[in-house]
Batch of 4 targets.
Target 1
Amino acid sequence: MLLEYVGLSQINGSLVILDGVKNASYDEMVVLRLDDGSQRIGRIVMIEGEKCVIQVFEGTTGFSLSNTRTTLTGHPMQVDLSPELLGRTLDGLGRPIDGLGAIYPECRRDVNGAPINPVSRFYPRNYICTGISAIDALTTLIRGQKLPIFSGSGMRHNELAVQIVKQANVSDGEDFAIVFAAMGVKNDVADYFKSSFEAANVMDRVVMLLNLAGDPIVERIITPKAALTIAEYLAFDLGKNILVILTDMTSYCEALREFSSSKGEIPGRKGYPGYLYSDLASLYERAGIVKGKKGSVTQIPILTMPNDDITHPIPDLTGYITEGQIVLDRNLDATGVYPPISVLPSLSRLMKDGIGKGYTREDHNPLANQLFATYARVQDAKALASVIGEEELSPSDKRVMEFGRAFEEKFVGQGNTSRTIEETLDLGWELLSMLPKEELDRVDQVLLDHYYKPKTDPKQRELGLRRAFHDDAE
């Protein structure tokens, strides 16, 4: 039997306090009815004896301490689930906002999800092709992995997110879909996401959740949970391989900080709640593959680092939980390189188990190691050139500098094009072939004999450089 409570004890911003409540549950949803007959929904966020603190989603404007009527629903926040979700645009709570009518659910599930038994987890294998060389070759995204993108304010992470949605796919032709959740975005950014997906004709495989900057912060806190609940349904009930893109996790954490402060909780680092780590883990750990289930849930959370500080609590804690990171570089972005992926601090800890023969190509792992090692030499050569000048570098360092420029312009800076994994690996070998074979010490001789294809013999190239230098001197 549902009980209706008349009146409120206190109103404080978006929080209301209800006294004399029995058998209430944390996270339980409530319905609040105003004098004019309108309804608003809320969520119990704190319980002290028979006193409940309720967060009202749409705010408390127009509330009355004496006449507001509150009904407890007896269940936490739930989202409607159906195969019809593909191609739909929802708000942060999973309700349709695209004007295409209601969703008739096959089932409803708690947005908080159910923990995956670690024993039931299947180790991630195989990869998801994003069509972006710097990711596919050097920080490969593996199915069931959580691989965040660390960006900065004003950088082109939204464009990168759209490109991944348009280009991503699995190599073996299995069912693939994307759940895209945007949190705290402005109206123009939301319109950019929608128009980009529609123009690329990919909406039929995308479920999009939009939480706008003007929406309530409690809705922002629910948005990634609702997105992951939808992803788990599509993956483990319908057998699809799901890629979840969450942007921007910094907006989520800011909402969590504001919400924690409104409840009067003791703040932790930089004012964020002390449970920020466990809260982020409750989201990120919902990625994975379950034994006996056909589908998978893979996550790409995108976050903007305040002041480009990778030691800030949000990227710092995210790095502890996830399996690597993709870091965007502001200097590359300023020089027009897109996507501006900083290769050296980026890594994918599960990459080695989802590439190579049977997955990508047998030369993938040694090629990636060689590209990393050679690009690290580029940074050393740049540092030396900043001291003595590039003209004073040795011929070997000059070749490395030449490789570095070509690597950033052609390999990393591919623009809005899509490359297959074969095209990416072939391009990597083309760039490495600019260097003498004896300098490539991370690749065995068999692979070198097969893939190394210099445009000219190194001795002839050096002779040509001497002739050019002699002509200039004359």
Target 2
Amino acid sequence: MSDITEYERRIAAALERIGHGVEALAQPVAVAPEPAPAGDAGEVIALREALESERAANAQLVERVRAIKEKQDSTIGALERRVAKLTAQLETGGLDAAKLRRANTQLSDASQALREAMAAALPEPHLINKAMLAELEALRALRASDAAEMEEILAELKPFLTPQPAPDQTEASHA
């Protein structure tokens, strides 16, 4: 029977605690957060430090991504400018080559007409003048083509010919 009395006492105590809990819920009271148990304080500090570490790492990664994007944008811009420049050079080279072919065709035709006149023993001065003009035009076209090619070579060499700052000077200026 002593077990039954013990159970009754425990049930009564539990009902009393429930009653106090219901009364506490009925009254609006500002509840202060419970202080963390002493054993959890070290864990909370460690978690906060880990969170701050992750935030710092995230900020560094965001900065790296931004720097990479800026570098990529500038590289793409430089490549687009270079493609435009090379396209213009290619078009100019194509025009020069067409002009050179045309001049060589004229020179070949004039030379053929001059050979035929010489074979017939009838040298005609206008054929000689025509051949000379065609040859002169071919030489001009060849010179223009050579000049354009030289400009392309110089444009490619120009970055290597400009003086670059010494590596230790750039490191000192960034520090």
Target 3
Amino acid sequence: MPEETRPAPTWAGDVQLGVEAWVGDPRPTPTPTPSAQAVPTDHQGQGPEADHEAVARKILLDALTGQARSRKELADKLARKDVPAELATRLLDRFTEVGLVDDSAFAHQWVESRQRSRGLAPRALSQELRRKGVDDETIKEALEQIDEDDQREAARRLVRRKLRSVQGLDQQAATRRLAGMLARKGYSAGLAFAVVRAELGADALPDDM
């Protein structure tokens, strides 16, 4: 199964800016904040809590390098690394404050990227975002950027790419196969069959099929 294409975050390449915002925050914190750049080498001097925090922060920064992730994805990653839940929550809250974790921005980027590159319909996009722990209200807002015309055009492109694969089939079999492909992409039956029938009945097919 091919690896999912993830949207690049708006801060891609600027993780250091978020870290500097964190380190430079003048507000007092309940525990000393170690360097975000590396795990402290003086483990004995820093103490076990500081060491755990530095390790957890590095896990988050490594996970965010080059791609955005939802808060749940990051929380799950910390849990798999046996980071204590209280520490994980505190760090994720801080990453959210400085803008390195933003489920709303993540959802918008994910929808735009996956709709453009994979032609996914809102239903499929919604399922993907739910699996990543994004809440329903945030998903709904992100999906508002896709209207019916966008869906229809994306469905047309998907069908045109697959027309060669149904050459030689009778129209009924070709319609079923192409409509099934669109259904797996999250399109409703009504839209899928309408687009497929229109494309199969087109007088001229694009030269770059």
Target 4
Amino acid sequence: MTRKVADCRKYPSESHCTLTISGEEDEVLRAAAEHAVSVHRHEDTPELREKLRDFLEDEQPSA
């Protein structure tokens, strides 16, 4: 299974967040939603989770 990554640096924010989350898709989606709510003040909705799922990228293997 391909690991997924959510990287806040790819999206501008007022907090200039640098958090990167990686792991299995469900783990990353859950952690990214919690982060979006607690740090970026988003509301945890199905729409937010769908946007976050679209935001995820495949993790690149380490060299």
